[in-house]
Design goal:
Two copies of one chain form a homodimer. Chain A is an alpha/beta fold. Chain A has three domains: 1-41, no CATH class; 54-81 and 323-421, Aspartate Aminotransferase, domain 1 (Alpha-Beta Complex); 84-318, Aspartate Aminotransferase, domain 2 (3-Layer(aba) Sandwich). The first copy, chain A, is 41% helix and 14% strand. The first copy, chain A, contains 15 helices and 14 strands. The first copy, chain A, has helices at 5-17, 54-63, 83-93, 98-102, 111-124, 139-150, 165-173, 190-200, 221-234, 255-259, 287-301, 307-318, 321-346, 371-378, 411-421; strands at 21-24, 28-31, 133-136, 156-161, 177-184, 187-188, 204-207, 237-241, 264-269, 281-284, 350-351, 360-364, 386-387, 400-404. In chain A, the strands form three sheets. In chain A, strands 3-10-9-8-7-4-5-6 form an eight-stranded mixed sheet, with helices on both faces. A four-stranded antiparallel sheet of chain A has the order 11-12-14-13. In chain A, α9 (221-234) links the parallel β7 (204-207) and β8. The relative contact order of chain A is 0.14. The interface between A and B is large, with 103 and 103 residues.
């Protein structure tokens, strides 16, 4: 075959590693007769009969094939991500010391990244020590750890209505009683919030205060002030999930900053703006809470997040190109938001608010049409929508739908919506 | 300064990214007066007064500085790991498509790695579909997910006595009643096992059947057969944590294989033999269980494990050099085991069994000396030991200590032990 012996040796090694051939000592290699299962093997997909619930949206979006359109999903198209900086960071990791490549992370995760985060918090006016930052496997895992530390089955948690659908899935996994507070264009309805805190005595309030998911709205300073006062009077802890932070050019005031981490636990991640493949989240909180969270993370994950992951993130964040990348993303987003609002309005779909940042639009369908039905019908067009009620504890968002302006570039989405909305299909 | 403008621009960008300087539009860069917290900043260490419990060992080992010796820790020295193959895999990742670099993993994790695992299982005689493999963030997270799916607070779980200390920490996080079954050189004491299953009705039995942690012993075929019969008669599920699998040249029969995943859930990871920084674990189980586990993983982590992580693992496993690396490790281990046994015996410390593989030795101290006291005293010599009772539900292993033969290369360990054992210090 004109190939060099070392090429052949390598080919044999690979075939042996795959189990297609097996060595017999002193005799050579033999075909095992066992082939690998086919690569294109389809996984059992989410049952079609399954209820349209938060899991339905997550599983459909995460497992769909690349030809499926996902105008409601929760992430940027991959070509918007800082891939060049990521490639550079991976090449750099390949040259790092063995400890980075193959040892467990420390219980809190790499000091380098925690140090960077505390410097960033200091810019916002929140002065804490890197000891008060715990790195976790992801933002979701961060919220999960907090729930495990602070909640017991049957406890009550307050969320916004609507809220990020996976908050509900997560809280249900903890067998938590979920109460929704109606969300307004300036944050949770503060009268309702105060009433619920008084009567239902929730243990936690879980929210995105800035660039709220799914609406893209912001808590106003007045609402923030009253929220914090109510929480502190009632001894209620607030979990502020701030994963969209980097989508703001000038950071708006955060609950965590106003409160100085007294009653607020701040959660973040890099999945939305840096990479969802290089996953890592963080929690900043009071020291006593961090200490309990460390034990829990050790018990349930052993070491902190992978050193290779946190190094790649630090490299990208500290590399200098990240800020420019984010400025570009923000410009890009503004343009896409305008375009998509216009196209949706042509179909009679109106944004509930026009967000100041981020990629979400919370659109109201015309004539009280039902978004769950539209999501189901859109599957035939290979389009996965995010219908309103998966975000709503009270199931009162049937006429809403979450759109991700960056994932609405294909005209097919609007054609399909038009056909379905006008009853043509 | 003779530097090129682009170098200076990059320096400014980095300083801005670190928050040391800040740009003002149309005016230039200004020093913020905020310095990063010092890099060498010590984290609040584990309180000295803290009880010597499973968390003590984990936190001490994970967070100790590199000059501290860890003769009892649960991993290989970093220079034993396949670092060259890891470097090559990271360089390859840097050239991969954007989807790998920045998108979420699918709910089950990459098909490439699941396909490789099913081929490996098939070699052992366990024929399952890649659908029956769920990739997780780590082996520990795999066990945690299973506990979350199958257990409720107050349920009973059976573990070996002694067993891997973090099993206890994990089960306590679930507020589970833990019962220990005495471990013998041929697996759990089968009479005691049958009695406990009958009277205590445990919901799960969590074990390492091969290269048991901490003893290095193996379940005999007779014990395995009786274990499975008892479990199947009682409807008891067994979680077989098989993270040391790759330390065997010829795989011994696994419970999962004998049982065909009917009553056994198999858990594994790559942390012990490939990298603990590139973390990933897996669960293979019945399809109905996998489906419940997927929902739980979505709720608590959202996407499956990072695509970059699973690609690196696949590259190393399929690269062909991994098998040779493991053969070398096994030879290396055999030599180290002999040396360490000899050195320990000189101090009157006897191995409870001589393991057939892996890196653990379960050593009995002379004259009924107390290993917790020795561990505490060794801290002054900057040595962290793993005292017996952190592994023992019944607290009956005070005269034992777990040694990791690969982490006992420094003579200081034996000098220190000799001094402490003979009362010289």
């Amino acid at each position: 075959m004109q190939a060099s012996p070392s090429t052949i040796v390598q080919a044999y090694d690979r075939l042996a590693a795959e189990g297609v051939i097996a060595p017999r000592q002193g005799s050579g290699f033999y075909v095992t007769g066992r082939a690998l299962p086919p690569l294109a093997l389809a996984d059992a997909t989410t049952p079609a009969a399954r209820a349209i619930d938060p899991f339905w949206v997550s599983r459909q979006s995460l497992d769909s094939d690349p030809t499926v359109l996902k105008p409601g999903c929760g992430w940027l198209p991959t070509e918007w991500m800082p891939n060049a900086a990521l490639r550079k960071a991976f090449r750099a990791v390949a040259r790092r010391e063995n400890v980075i490549l193959s040892e467990y992370g420390s219980t809190r995760g790499a000091i380098r990244l925690r140090r960077f985060l505390t410097a960033q918090f200091a810019e916002e006016g929140l002065e804490i020590s890197p000891d008060q930052v715990l790195l976790t496997g992801s933002g979701t895992q961060a919220v999960d750890l907090i729930c495990r530390l602070l909640l017991r089955r049957g406890d009550t948690v307050l969320v916004d209505d609507p809220c990020y659908f996976n908050f509900q899935a997560l809280l249900r996994a903890h067998e938590i009683r979920i109460i929704g507070v109606p969300y307004t264009a300036t944050g949770p309805d503060i009268e309702a919030f105060e009433r619920i805190v008084l009567h239902e005595k929730p243990h936690l309030y879980l929210t995105n205060s800035v660039l709220h998911n799914p609406t893209g709205a912001m808590v106003s300073p007045q609402t923030a002030f009253r929220l914090l006062n109510t929480a502190s009077a009632a001894g209620l802890l607030i979990v502020e999930d701030d994963i969209f932070a980097d989508f703001e050019t000038i950071p708006s005031p955060r609950l965590a900053v106003m409160d100085g981490l007294d009653h607020v636990i701040r959660v973040g991640s890099f999945s939305k703006t840096l990479s969802a493949s290089v996953r890592c989240g963080y929690i900043s909180a009071r020291k006593d809470l961090i200490d309990g969270l460390i034990d829990l993370q050790v018990a349930t994950s052993f070491g902190g997040p992978s050193p290779v992951i946190t190094e790649v993130i630090s490299d990208v964040l500290e590399g200098g190109s990240y800020r420019k990348h984010m400025l570009e993303i923000q410009r890009h987003l503004e343009k896409s938001r305008k375009t998509v609002i216009h196209k949706l309005e042509m179909l009679g779909i109106c944004p509930w608010v026009v967000p100041k940042g981020g990629f979400y639009l919370w659109g109201r369908l015309p004539d009280g049409q039902d978004s769950t039905q539209i999501a189901l019908r859109s599957l035939d067009d290979k389009i996965i929508h995010a219908p309103g009620n998966v975000f709503s504890v009270s199931q009162s968002a049937s006429s809403f739908m979450r759109f991700n302006v960056t994932q609405c570039m294909d005209e097919k989405i609007f054609h399909s919506l038009e056909n379905i909305l006008t009853g043509r299909r």
